[in-house]
Amino acid sequence: MPPGTFVLFASVTFTGATTYEQAAALLGEDGTTPYPWICDDPRTSVPPPPDQQRAAFAASHQLLLSYPTDDQLNRLASSALVLSVDAAHLYMCP
Questions:
Q1: pTM of the entire structure?
Q2: Cα angle at 81 between 6 and 92, to 5 degrees?
Q3: N or C of the chain: less Cβ packing under 10 Å?
Q4: CA dihedral 70, 16, 36, 32 (to 10 degrees)
């Protein structure tokens, strides 16, 4: 993403060898909580149980990051565990 671009959510795609724990730790280095779910399926702001979150990550190798800073995006993009960092267009949770 271009520097100075403001996004509400970024979708971070990790390598197939990256574990959920590694991905969550990488996103959490800045005190950020990753979102391994979207609240549209089903529409709820309550996260699914940890086992479902890990299963969703194992299937997609993606996590969502809310209100990322340029520094976070640059750090993630330079990680060997990350394949891509993209803006994610989501609907607001209820």
A1: 0.79
A2: 35
A3: C
A4: -40
